[in-house]
Amino acid sequence: MPDDTVGRFLAALSPEDRAGVAARPAEEQESLAEAWEQELAGDDELDVLDELSPAEAEAEAARRVLGKGRD
Prior knowledge:
This protein is an all-alpha fold.
């Protein structure tokens, strides 16, 4: 399991989204990964989900971060 923020963020993405994000510049990947960490830390719903399934909480936060970029 990757221990750097960008690696963990990429691992939380679906394969299709992972490929798209991996093709972006490193600065953008880092920005998305930081937003992902903030989403994980700042949402109480994700805290509950994290206790049940940490991987699903990370995946949901990743979907939210990417969704915000598409709006």
